[in-house]
């Protein structure tokens, strides 16, 4: 069957990959509301830096795997990498349920990070492959919508189950089903998309083999500092996930210190990714129409405002308002950054460019957890949150000054 580019032309495979990415996101949601409580109550960890160590391990493992996932996808095929990611996720629910020490939790998060790097990166790359250049933002909106709405629902469910049945093992049992369904769908129904890459490369350059492919080292330099738009995207992604690491690890502790119940903490932890997830249904396609830069810049500034609102609050309504703003800002940024990478990078080295971007983006988890933990231990949780808000505002300013509009839509002012 001759491959064709476009969302409508590939709706069946595209929809299947959206579903698969929902199960990928749900695996992360298993931990979002309750792992800090497990650290404090079961393993008696007091220092914020120690509690947030699971996010550092997850972030480093996921970032390093993201870097490799693009090259592995180009070399061995997208589908093989996706299946490998699910196989590596299989032990995670069991480790979280029965871990006898905190080091076992860290091992589970290392495996989860590697699995996420392979599965999420591959579903992103495959959707970009399928739709071609015209609807790239819309495709990323659907992809990230599925992942983060599923993450939010999983977070809400684990918070509810933990409040009713205890912190372990019940909340993690649903993870066994997530892995089983994701692996079966990927192995038996997902098809590889490398033929779509070849087709787009021909349209891009007139000859799929004419344009030389930069070395991996050169792609790394382009996406890290040399090319203004690619490097602006990478730094914004890093700060965005620095915020997510803060929301994942420190916000539940801040909410608990303000007297929120476990059920309330679960609801607040789910609200931010839920707004983020649903918002991407709008912002991904919007970036195709109005351009990428404005959404990225204003999205980072909106995140900064949301974090500041949480820092100033001590009640559920204030925390919820800040979480909504943080979710809106993240929805503006997240699919747009991925779409912009696809705009700038040639199809033949796009997967590698996505890998470099996702390396820096997910190192934000580690940087955020270390920064938040050190600041919280030394100066208090509020100071850690305020410093993060300032960094986020600065990231938006960097993008405003360095980034160019990359889409074919109207240029941002």
Automatic annotation (TrEMBL):
<feature type="transmembrane region" description="Helical">
    <location>
        <begin position="295"/>
        <end position="312"/>
    </location>
</feature>
<dbReference type="GO" id="GO:0022857">
    <property type="term" value="F:transmembrane transporter activity"/>
</dbReference>
<keyword id="KW-0813">Transport</keyword>
<feature type="transmembrane region" description="Helical">
    <location>
        <begin position="319"/>
        <end position="341"/>
    </location>
</feature>
<feature type="domain" description="Major facilitator superfamily (MFS) profile">
    <location>
        <begin position="10"/>
        <end position="407"/>
    </location>
</feature>
<feature type="transmembrane region" description="Helical">
    <location>
        <begin position="12"/>
        <end position="30"/>
    </location>
</feature>
<keyword id="KW-0812">Transmembrane</keyword>
<feature type="transmembrane region" description="Helical">
    <location>
        <begin position="104"/>
        <end position="125"/>
    </location>
</feature>
<protein>
    <submittedName>
        <fullName>MFS transporter</fullName>
    </submittedName>
</protein>
<dbReference type="InterPro" id="IPR020846">
    <property type="entry name" value="MFS_dom"/>
</dbReference>
<dbReference type="InterPro" id="IPR036259">
    <property type="entry name" value="MFS_trans_sf"/>
</dbReference>
<dbReference type="InterPro" id="IPR050171">
    <property type="entry name" value="MFS_Transporters"/>
</dbReference>
<feature type="transmembrane region" description="Helical">
    <location>
        <begin position="145"/>
        <end position="166"/>
    </location>
</feature>
<feature type="transmembrane region" description="Helical">
    <location>
        <begin position="50"/>
        <end position="69"/>
    </location>
</feature>
<keyword id="KW-1003">Cell membrane</keyword>
<feature type="transmembrane region" description="Helical">
    <location>
        <begin position="250"/>
        <end position="275"/>
    </location>
</feature>
<dbReference type="Pfam" id="PF07690">
    <property type="entry name" value="MFS_1"/>
</dbReference>
<feature type="transmembrane region" description="Helical">
    <location>
        <begin position="172"/>
        <end position="190"/>
    </location>
</feature>
<dbReference type="InterPro" id="IPR005829">
    <property type="entry name" value="Sugar_transporter_CS"/>
</dbReference>
<feature type="transmembrane region" description="Helical">
    <location>
        <begin position="81"/>
        <end position="98"/>
    </location>
</feature>
<dbReference type="GO" id="GO:0005886">
    <property type="term" value="C:plasma membrane"/>
</dbReference>
<feature type="transmembrane region" description="Helical">
    <location>
        <begin position="379"/>
        <end position="401"/>
    </location>
</feature>
<keyword id="KW-0472">Membrane</keyword>
<keyword id="KW-1133">Transmembrane helix</keyword>
<dbReference type="InterPro" id="IPR011701">
    <property type="entry name" value="MFS"/>
</dbReference>
């Amino acid at each position: 069957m001759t491959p064709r580019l476009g969302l409508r032309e590939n709706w069946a495979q595209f929809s299947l990959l959206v579903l698969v990415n929902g199960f990928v996101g749900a695996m992360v949601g298993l931990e979002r509301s309750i792992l800090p409580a497990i650290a404090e109550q079961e393993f008696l960890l007091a220092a914020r830096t120690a509690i947030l160590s699971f996010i550092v391990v997850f972030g480093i493992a996921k970032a390093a795997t993201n870097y490799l996932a693009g090259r592995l996808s180009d070399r061995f095929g997208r589908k093989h990498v996706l299946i490998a990611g699910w196989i590596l996720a299989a032990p995670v629910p069991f480790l979280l349920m029965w871990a006898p020490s905190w080091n076992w939790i860290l091992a589970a998060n290392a495996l989860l990070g590697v699995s996420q790097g392979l599965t999420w990166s591959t579903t992103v790359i495959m959707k970009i492959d399928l739709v071609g250049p015209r609807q790239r933002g819309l495709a990323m909106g659907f992809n990230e919508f599925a992942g983060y709405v599923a993450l939010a629902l999983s977070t809400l469910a684990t918070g509810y189950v933990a409040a009713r049945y205890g912190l372990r093992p019940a909340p993690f049992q649903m993870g066994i089903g997530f892995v089983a369904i994701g692996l079966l769908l990927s192995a038996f129904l997902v098809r590889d998309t490398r033929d779509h890459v070849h087709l787009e490369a021909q349209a891009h350059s007139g000859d799929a083999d004419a344009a030389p492919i930069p070395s991996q080292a050169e792609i790394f330099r382009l996406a890290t500092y040399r090319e203004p738009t690619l490097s602006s995207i990478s730094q914004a992604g890093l700060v965005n996930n620095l915020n997510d690491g803060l929301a994942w690890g420190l916000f539940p502790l801040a909410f608990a210190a303000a007297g929120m119940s476990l059920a309330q903490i679960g609801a607040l932890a789910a609200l931010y990714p839920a707004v983020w997830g649903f918002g991407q249904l709008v912002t991904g396609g919007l970036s195709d129409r109005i351009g990428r830069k404005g959404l990225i810049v204003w999205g980072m500034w909106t995140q900064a405002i949301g974090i500041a609102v949480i820092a100033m609050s001590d009640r559920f309504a204030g925390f919820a308002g800040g979480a909504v703003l943080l979710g809106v800002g993240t929805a503006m940024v997240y699919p747009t950054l991925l779409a912009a990478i696809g705009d700038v990078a040639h199809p033949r080295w796009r997967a590698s460019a996505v890998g470099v971007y996702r390396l820096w983006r997910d190192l934000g988890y580690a940087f955020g957890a270390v920064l938040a933990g050190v600041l919280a231990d030394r100066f208090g949780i509020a100071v850690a949150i305020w410093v993060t808000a300032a960094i986020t505002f600065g990231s938006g300013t960097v993008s405003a000054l360095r980034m160019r509009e990359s889409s074919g839509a109207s240029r941002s002012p």
